[in-house]
Specification:
By secondary structure, the chain is an alpha/beta fold. 39% of the residues lie in helices and 13% in strands. Helix 3 runs parallel beside helix 4 and helix 9 packs across helix 10. The longest helix has 41 residues. The chain is globular and about 60 Å long. The protein starts with 26 loop residues before the first strand and ends with a strand. 46% of the residues are buried.
C-alpha cells in the first residue's frame, strides 16, 4: 500500500469518489441494464465471425478505413433505419458514431456549453444529463412534465422569462420518445409547439432518442429532427437499449457544421471498432425482428412489475403505464424518503434508483423512485417488490396492507 499523498494533488471540483464494485444486488432494479436472455448472442457471434473474416485486416487502420465518423456500413444502416422509423432524411455523412450516448452528450455539450451558460431540460430527466450540466457549471432550467411529456405552457413561460432577463439558452434538451424516467411520449401537437417555440426564441433543440426503439406498438411519432424546418436540432441515439448496453455504441445526427466541431474535440482516435463492425453486420438483417421480440418480452416484465406493485403496495404506489422502455417511475406517499428507503432496501438485497437523482427538483422527487424491470427475471421482480414493500412498511408504515393482509 502506497503512503504517497495523492489527495493534495487532485484537481478541485471533482465529484465524490466512486464506491468499490461489490456486485449487483440480489434484486436489482437500477441502471439501464437490459434483459440478458434477449441479447442475440448466437447471431452476434456469427456476425463477428463473418465480418472479421471479410474485413478483419481493416483493424490495422484507425477508423477501419471508414474515416473518423465511424464504420461506414453501420452509419449506412442507421441512415436507412432513421428514415424508415423516425422520418429523418440523412445519409452516412450526417452521422457520427460515439462510445455510447454518454459520449454523444459530452460532445454536444462540449461545442455548446461554457460555465455560466443556461440550458433548458425536462424537470425529471436522465441522471447523466443532469450531472454533466451540474459539473459544467451550467444554469439548469427544469420544465415540468405531465402524462403527455414536457409541458409546453411551462416551456413558453420559461423562455419568455429568460428573454426578459436577457438570457438565451444554449439548447432545449428533451427525451421526447419514451422519456427517461417517466416513459411518456411527446404528442405530435406538442412536438409542433416545441419547434414553434424554439424557432420563435432562436434556441436549438437537443433530442435524445435512446429509448425510441422500445415502444410497445412499434409506432413512434416523427423525430423532432425530421420535423425541424428552420429549427436547429441535434439528434442522438444508442444501441444500448435495443441490442446491449455493454457494446457502448451510440450516435449523433447533425449538420456537418456541428459534426466537424465535435470531431475536433473527439480525441479518442475512434470509438470501439469491433462493436461497430459486429453491429454493422448484424443489424441490416436482424434489427427489426430482434427489437419486435425484445419489446414483447419487456412488456411482459413490465406487467409483472405493475402487478407486483399493485399486490404488495396497493394504492400506496402510484404510476402510469409507460408506453415503452425499461423503467417504471413510481410515486410513493409523501412520508417516504427514497434516500432512506434505498439504504434500508439495499441492506435487504434490493437496489432502487433514488427519485432525486433523476430530477432537477429534489423536493418534488423525494418520494419517487425509478425501477428498471428489464434485467431481473419475472420471479426476481415479484420477490424483489415483495421485499421492498416489507422494508418500506418497516421504515415508513407504507403500505399499511399488502395483498389484503393487515400488517403490524
Amino acid at each position: 500500500m502506497s503512503s504517497f499523498d495523492f489527495a493534495s494533488l487532485l484537481a478541485p471540483g471533482l465529484p465524490p469518489a466512486a464506491a468499490k464494485w461489490n456486485g449487483l444486488a440480489k434484486y436489482s432494479f437500477v441502471g439501464g441494464n437490459n434483459d440478458p436472455d434477449q441479447v442475440p448472442v448466437e447471431a452476434l457471434i456469427k456476425a463477428m465471425s463473418d465480418v472479421l473474416t471479410r474485413e478483419g485486416k481493416d483493424l490495422a487502420t484507425y477508423g477501419l478505413a471508414s474515416g473518423p465518423q465511424g464504420y461506414l456500413r453501420l452509419r449506412e444502416f442507421l441512415a436507412q433505419k432513421l428514415k424508415r422509423n423516425a422520418g429523418i432524411a440523412c445519409d452516412a455523412g450526417d452521422i457520427l458514431i460515439t462510445s455510447g450516448s454518454l459520449q454523444a452528450l459530452d460532445l454536444v455539450n462540449g461545442i455548446f456549453l461554457a460555465r455560466g451558460d443556461t440550458a433548458i431540460i425536462e424537470q425529471e430527466c436522465y441522471q447523466g444529463s443532469i450531472n454533466r450540466l451540474t459539473r459544467l457549471g451550467v444554469n439548469v432550467v427544469g420544465i415540468p412534465l405531465d402524462r403527455g411529456g414536457m409541458r409546453m405552457d411551462s416551456l413558453a413561460s420559461a423562455l419568455a422569462d429568460l428573454k426578459r432577463r436577457g438570457v438565451r439558452p444554449k439548447y432545449i434538451y428533451t427525451i421526447p420518445t419514451v422519456q427517461n424516467p417517466t416513459g411518456t411520449i411527446l404528442s405530435e401537437a406538442r412536438r409542433h409547439e416545441l419547434l414553434r417555440l424554439a424557432r420563435e426564441y432562436g434556441v436549438p433543440i437537443f433530442e435524445d432518442d435512446c429509448y425510441a426503439d422500445l415502444i410497445w406498438d412499434g409506432k413512434r411519432p416523427l423525430a423532432l429532427y425530421a420535423m425541424s424546418k428552420g429549427v436547429g436540432v441535434v439528434h442522438i441515439g444508442s444501441f444500448s437499449k435495443s441490442i446491449a448496453p455493454a457494446l457502448r455504441v451510440g450516435y449523433i445526427v447533425a449538420e456537418w457544421e456541428l459534426l466537424s466541431r465535435m470531431l475536433a474535440i473527439k480525441t479518442d482516435a475512434g470509438s470501439g471498432a469491433l462493436e461497430q463492425m459486429v453491429l454493422g453486420e448484424y443489424c441490416p438483417a436482424h434489427f427489426d425482428s430482434h427489437v419486435s421480440e425484445l419489446t414483447r418480452g419487456l412488456r411482459a416484465k413490465l406487467e409483472t412489475m405493475m402487478d407486483a406493485l399493485n399486490e404488495h403496495f396497493g394504492t400506496a404506489a402510484e404510476f402510469d403505464d409507460p408506453k415503452g422502455g425499461i423503467f417504471l417511475w413510481v410515486k410513493l406517499p409523501d412520508q417516504v424518503d427514497t434516500l432512506k428507503l434505498y439504504q434500508s432496501a439495499l441492506a435487504a438485497g434490493v437496489a432502487i434508483n433514488l427519485g432525486p437523482e433523476w430530477s432537477v427538483d429534489k423536493s418534488y422527487s423525494r418520494s419517487r423512485t425509478r425501477l428498471c424491470f428489464a434485467s431481473p427475471t419475472h420471479a426476481e421482480i415479484r420477490e424483489g417488490i415483495a421485499t421492498l414493500a416489507e422494508v418500506c412498511h418497516r421504515e415508513f408504515g407504507v403500505p399499511a396492507r399488502i395483498a389484503n393482509v393487515a400488517r403490524g
